[in-house]
Each structure stands twice: as structure tokens, then as C-alpha cells.
Design goal:
Blueprint (H helix, E strand, L loop, with lengths): L2 E4 L8 H20 L3 H15 L6 E4 L2 E5 L4 H17 L12 H15 L11 H11 L1 E5 L4 H12 L7 E2 L17 E2 L8 E2 L3 H14 L6 E5 L2 H11 L2 E5 L6 H8 L4 E4 L2 H10 L1
Parallel strand pairs: 1-4, 1-8, 4-5, 8-9, 9-10
Antiparallel strand pairs: 2-3, 6-7
Length: 282
């Protein structure tokens, strides 16, 4: 038996299918708040989505730093697209819309849009998610750690388990938040094959891991962290010495998988069964 820190969105769920209504509400809310016409957003976003998926240097930005690649999942891609929409429209000579002008204002708006839109996401679990969670709970100590609203995630897990058991959940982990004043870890690392730095100073996430250690004895030698986005879920825990498992998705890049496959405590799992095998051997 080992301890497991389990991500939720994209790890247990099919993020692409779940995000369809999320993206529509995100667009409507953006247009309502800024006054940008829906037609204008549709035109710009269609082009941006295609190009940003292919650009490994672009992604979700916090405190001026890319904290996850745009291709990672539809939530990250949406944030990246709308940041670019704001920048594009702000370059116009005539300021017609109520758009944020500073980096701090942009980040605040995008975070508010995420939180307003997430409750409208569909509930679509990955095939085999129920059996996987059953096995995890039977064999290991599990805590779900998510950026999303804790109560909403509890409700979704309740639908998966049909109320047969409860799973501990820590919400609002803010794995994407960078705090440059947090000197406990290096600012960044750059593994072989990565075209840009991977930033580590995610104080909120570090505090969650520290709390789990103090309250549940989830230490680096007896705990695996499982997620679908390397930079958000796994980079900091990997640096700290945890075992980390990347659940392979279309958004996982080849250089991320190659890095983890060559790492002493890093793994790539192509199925839930492989995750369980890794935990059993670990």
C-alpha cells in the first residue's frame, strides 16, 4: 500500500468531452464582461486554437510565465486562446471594449472566467474510471488534489461512485500559480528536449503537499502523484522527490513522456491498469 495524490480533471475524466459546454459558457461570459461581440470572438478563436495547439512555447500564463502548454487540455487551451484574444484586441487603435490592460488584470479575469465556467462542464468519465477508483481506494491511501472547486469535484465523484464511498478531496490547489518570492525551490528546470523552462515555484501546490505530509504522512518516499499534465501536476512533486505518474492523453507531449520514462521516479501510464501496476511495484 502506498499513498496517492490523484488529479481529477483529465485524469479521471474525458476533458475534451467535458469541456464542450464549459467553452461555450466561457465565451458567453467573456463577451458579457468585456462587450466583445460573440462573432468577433468566434472568428479570432477559430484561428488561434489551431495555431496554439502546435506551439510548444505558448500556454497558460501566470505571473508572466507559461505554466502549462496550450495543448495540454481544453481548459488550458481556452485560457491561452482568450489571453491572445485580449492581446489582439488591445492592439487596436480604438479601445471599444472593456478589456483588461495589465498582466494582473488579465490573469484575474481569466481565473474568474475559469471559475464561473467550470460548474457548467459536462460530467464524462474516462472508460474504466469507476473500476480504477475502486481499486485505488481498496489498495491505497488516496486524496484527490484539484485546481477546481472542491464541492463540484465531490459531486462529480459521487456520481461516479454512486455514493458507495467517499474520496478525500482538496480543491483550489492552484497548481498554476507562480510565486517568485518562494525560494524553497529553484525558479525553474529545463529537462532535455524541452523548448522552454518548467517553472517550479508553485507555493499553493507546495503548501497542499506539505499539509498532506503533516496530516496524513504523505511523504516523498511513500507517495505517488498521478496526473495528466506534467507541468501542472507532476513537475514540482518530481523535483521534491515524489514518485510521479503521467496518465497519457493526446495533450501529453513526446518530450514530457521521454523525460519521465528516463527518470528514476517518473513513469508514463497508457491505461489505468498500468497505473495500478506501477503502484503495486512501487
Amino acid at each position: 500500500m502506498v499513498n496517492v495524490v490523484l488529479d481529477f480533471d483529465g485524469t479521471l475524466t474525458d476533458a475534451d468531452k467535458e469541456a464542450v459546454p464549459y467553452k461555450e459558457i466561457h465565451k458567453q461570459e467573456f463577451c458579457r464582461r468585456t462587450g466583445v461581440p460573440v462573432e468577433r470572438v468566434n472568428t479570432i478563436s477559430a484561428v488561434l486554437e489551431t495555431t496554439l495547439k502546435l506551439d510548444s512555447l505558448e500556454g497558460w500564463v501566470d505571473n508572466g510565465k507559461v505554466v502549462a502548454p496550450a495543448c495540454a487540455d481544453p481548459y488550458v487551451l481556452t485560457s491561452t486562446v482568450y489571453r491572445k484574444i485580449i492581446d489582439h484586441l488591445n492592439k487596436g487603435l480604438v479601445k471599444r471594449y472593456n478589456l483588461p490592460q495589465t498582466e494582473e488584470e488579465r490573469s484575474k479575469l481569466l481565473e474568474e472566467l475559469f471559475r464561473a465556467s467550470y460548474p457548467h462542464a459536462a460530467v464524462v468519465f474516462r472508460k474504466g474510471a469507476r473500476r480504477f477508483l475502486d481499486d485505488l481506494m481498496d489498495e491505497h491511501n488516496v486524496v484527490v488534489v484539484t485546481n477546481s472547486d472542491e464541492q463540484k469535484v465531490r459531486e462529480k465523484i459521487g456520481k461516479l461512485t454512486k455514493g458507495d464511498y467517499e474520496v478525500p478531496v482538496v480543491g483550489d490547489a492552484r497548481k498554476y500559480k507562480i510565486d517568485d518570492s518562494f525560494g524553497f525551490v529553484p525558479e525553474s528546470v529545463r529537462p532535455d528536449g524541452f523548448q522552454r523552462p518548467v517553472f517550479l515555484r508553485r507555493r499553493n501546490y507546495f503548501n497542499v503537499l506539505t499539509k498532506l505530509y503533516k496530516e496524513r504522512s504523505f511523504g516523498t518516499t511513500n507517495t505517488f502523484v498521478i496526473g495528466d499534465i506534467y507541468e501542472l501536476d507532476l513537475a514540482l512533486p518530481e523535483h521534491l522527490g515524489y514518485g510521479v505518474i503521467l496518465v497519457n492523453t493526446p495533450g501529453a507531449s513526446e518530450h514530457e513522456k521521454k523525460h519521465l520514462e528516463s527518470s528514476r521516479k517518473g513513469f508514463v501510464a497508457h491505461s489505468f491498469g498500468e497505473v495500478l501496476d506501477i503502484l503495486k511495484s512501487g
